[in-house]
Amino acid sequence: MELLKFMFRFAVRLIAVHVVVYSVAIFGPMLFVVPFILIRQNPTADYTWLALTLFWVAPISAGFYTNFYYHWTSVKQWQREGGQPGRWNQDNGGLFHTGLRSIAIMFGSLFASYVCEVLFVLAFSRVPMPSAIARELVGFALMPFATFGPVILLWLHLWQRSRRQMECE
Length: 169
Fold this sequence. Notes:
By secondary structure, the protein is an all-alpha fold. Helices cover about 85% and strands about 0% of the residues.
């Protein structure tokens, strides 16, 4: 009976962790709206805690979306080729190879997102601003471009690849 209780508690915790992580990952881009609402309500408050939260949480969303788009384009390519798994597996190394590549791109995107954010903070700290409120507003407005930079680069890469494929046909 103790074992069943332990397994049930473990399953509930695991489900709760997955719900939280996937919620943050999926709704991560919407988190960048929160600072503007809070600054509008109280412009004199200190929002360092919010910037740090976004700094650490938003790259998870960038990694998720990079993984999603990369895998999605692979599935769309398979569907365009008529959905024949034999040919697609031979051309792309199979599902296991594609999954590993997708996960590697996700973690690479996570790391690249943190690097982009650090570079953004270092560069933005040297830009003169007329007031602290303006600095916060501009910083929160530009931070998504640094955070989701790897996703934007993936979109550009996929767009270029699709244009090259269309030119070859």
